[in-house]
Amino acid sequence: MDTIVEMKHVSKQFGNKKAVDDVSLLIEKGSIVAILGPNGAGKTTVISMLLGLIKPTQGTVQVMGKDPRDIEVRQKIGAMLQEVSVMDALKVHELIDLIRSYYPRPLDIDQLTPLTGLQDKDLNRYANKLSGGQKRRLGFTLALAGNPDLIFLDEPTVGLDVTARRVFWDQVRTLTTQGKTILFTTHYLPEAEDYADRVILFDQGVIIADGTPDAIKSKLTLSSVSFKSEDSDLRDILRKLPNVSDVYEKDGRIYTVTEDTDGMLASIFENKFAVRDIRVEHGRLDDAFEQLTTHAEIDNKGAVKS
Amino acid sequence: MMNVITMQCKAELLRIFRNPYYVFWSLILPIIFYYIFTRIVNTNTDDNGLWQAHYLMSMTTFSVMGSSIMTLGIRIVQERVHGWSTYMRITPLPEGVYFFGKMFGQSVMHLFSIIIIFVAGYIINGVSLSASQWILSGLWILIACAPFLALGTLIGTMKKVDTASGVSNAVYMVLAILGGMWFPTDSFPKGLQMVSHWLPSYNFGNGAWELIQGNALRWENILILIGYLVFFVVLSTYIRKKQEVV
């Protein structure tokens, strides 16, 4: 497979804050890749560097083997930015024609509207008078106007309801059948799961997981062994056990987070810990992700600490 | 490439002429002023015909200076605040074409304003100038407004639309009044006259005022305007470069 996007040891510093920290990744042609993560994880910074809007503090970014600011790259990419904005005082069809004229091989309006769901009656309206949903469709239309090979969608479905979201992703899917590469950011886990071939999970500027949606799922899913105990020293002892990534107390129970629940049970019995009412729990993906998105910290083992 | 330039110019033109503020600030207001100060208020001038032609030039330069500073400046800020400038940077449109489109749109708008206000002067007061005076003064106004367009791009580096609109309004009014566009600088105290003669607005207006008297353009007017043009271009380019480095 050909590589279309390459980031090598890329960092981006804003003042004192490291928005992206030593990120390397390759994206293959024809894939749908989701960049998933909570707000402030560095998703938009990554996209902005790939689009050549900001320069990395360190490292190199290449799109189609060139600097993202190269005009030849720009002719082959399209993007829908988070804030869909349109020029005032232009009608929708005038705006689309204007943007089309920038590209060497643009799509016709007749080809564009079925792809993006923009209605013919909207074409004659002023672009800045459109509703939020229609503006987004227009933004999507403009992103596709140049018939790009690589499409960036930054939080494309924020503010859309469930139906509109599904319709949007159906449209995106038809694009991938034409061999286009799609890179989108989202903080909705199900969206990444359902529509991407590959999910790159970001948190605090670093990649914490990268793989197929299934692989990410198993990594995010947490197991724990919990019990009641009056032994106040027990928590410190538990923390030192191998394979235990976290210990916390909730509702009078002590939870030990581990990937190996069987091993945990064995060590409880071996060490004859003074515990009762033992339960083994396999956490749900949604819970795990929710913990992640509510500013939990993640260590490099991929386990969640609350 | 030709097609891109044409499309860009067309889009800028449409946007400018669809802006209702343009019609008011650039056309109606100067024409009302012109009517008031040549028909209603008695200005006690010796040569009424000359005054009517002089004030017509004042109002035309006033109009064109305003749209150069305000329309251009505020529009640039708006485009940036709304994220449109960011979007343009990811399209393959060369920056030069974008800039050319803006300048073209402005120039056509200025030409249009010049014609309308000249016609209004002819209708209101029967201002009579030779064909070459009409054409030369029109051309002067069209070309010599360049420093104000550069000032517009400088205003365009401001962060907020409100700031840009407040500042450009104030700068516009001060330049217009001190430059003698509302009242001739002869009526100013000596000290103020000195200041005025160094302002770009006075030098802009004076080119047209000289032409309608049958005089040639004065070098000092041209040189001072070029000086301002260079200064504003350099400053605005410098600030823009500084803002771009992220």
Automatic annotation (TrEMBL), chain A:
Residues 5-229 form the ABC transporter domain. InterPro entries: AAA+_ATPase, ABC_transporter-like_ATP-bd, ABC_transporter_ATP-binding, P-loop_NTPase. SMART domains: AAA. Signal peptide: none annotated. It holds the Pfam family ABC_tran. Keywords: ATP-binding, Nucleotide-binding, Transport. One of its GO terms (molecular function) is ATP binding. PANTHER family: ABC TRANSPORTER ATP-BINDING PROTEIN. This is ABC-2 type transport system ATP-binding protein.
TrEMBL record, chain B:
Its main location: membrane. Residues 21-243 form the ABC transmembrane type-2 domain. It holds the Pfam family ABC2_membrane_3. It is found in: Membrane. It is a multi-pass membrane protein. The chain crosses the membrane at residues 21-41, 53-74, 108-128, 134-155, 167-185, 222-239. This is ABC-2 type transport system permease protein. The lineage of its organism: Bacteria, Bacillati, Bacillota, Bacilli, Bacillales.
